[in-house]
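Per reviewer request, we include the raw input and output of the structure prediction for the construct analysed in the revised manuscript.
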Amino acid sequence: MSKGLIASHKVGGERCPGSGRAAGGLRTPDEARAAGGDAKATRRPPVDAWVETIQLLLVVLGGVAFLVGFIGALFSETVPLLALPVTAVAGIIAWTLNVTPAGRRNTSRNQAEATRQAGIRERKAARAEGERQKTRAREAAEAAQAQRRAVRELLDGLPERGAPQVEAITYCLSRTGAARDPRVQAEAERLARRHVAVDERILCVALSVVGEPRRRPALLILTDRGAAVSDRGTSYRCDPDPGDVTEGWGVQVGELLFSFPGNPQLWTALAARAEAAALSAPAAPLTGRPEPRLIRTPRDAELVAVDWMRYLGFADAVATPVGADEGIDVISERGLAQVKMEGRPTSRPTVQQLHGVATAKEREALFFSLGGYTVPASAWASQHGIALFRYDHQGTPEAVNPPALRLMEAADARAPEPAGAEHGGDA
């Protein structure tokens, strides 16, 4: 027996050299059909290749002839007459070859190849887009995690709620470039005293972008419940809307822009507002009556009324912006007040107007007047539960009717003064 026959009878799963069949040279019916299909798919008759090559040459010839004829028309009338027929004949022959069986097979094969390549490109594009989406999701998750860490660091570093506002302002300014500017510190303290309630948490102190030379930047204090702005001697309270915040750019308050690049802690403070508000706690009671303060302007009188309303139990009392509607000068969650700095006594219609506003807003009404009240005004206010206070130029109020007296006595009981201290006014 020859060596070839001996090799053909070897068993044990060995493969014959140069073939994909198992030892023995036999294929299963499924393998045979698959192999035949692959062969038909990859086998290409020589005539198809020849037809495709001839078509390509004819197309090239037609294109060259057309180009020669087009350029030759600029120099001679004879060249186009020779070139254009060659172009037409080449095109006709190429079209004729295309409708032959070989041409149709080539066309079908080319279309299938184009479809396959388009599918490959689509799959690559889909994979690339999936990778980009994963990258964006990963970056977004990392950014959110970094922001949560920054928010936690900010909230952990802030003084406790109810602590003196100066401590929170000092901490917030220490994270800015204006940390060593005493004027900014003083302006921020004045702004907080006027428009930030004692039970609010100050999250950030920011400076505006200055577009004019020699103009001081405006100041923004952001808290867990709102914001306050000081700009060129004018201060007011505001609450930025979501539409005022442009991610990656800044906060727009009217014409003022407080940019994130210039105030890196501002974006973190905005993100911390909801969490800081959720950690609400009652404000620490004041330890004594507010210190006397000289009153020179109506705004001074309103700020004195803010201090005393906080002492009387309205810890979130803040001064309203200048020119607020309905005559309300100080407002809090539970009460509101009107302040008059006039030499004549306040009349009953004025007190009645305050009562109407307070009733509509379902809040307690307080009135502070430098000139006192008429007898009808005092009697009507006592009947309807409006607390009336008369203050002097040193900013010390005096209760002039029973509702005001009850508020003052309750406040004194909550915050007893040190022994030997004198009250700034009668209780």
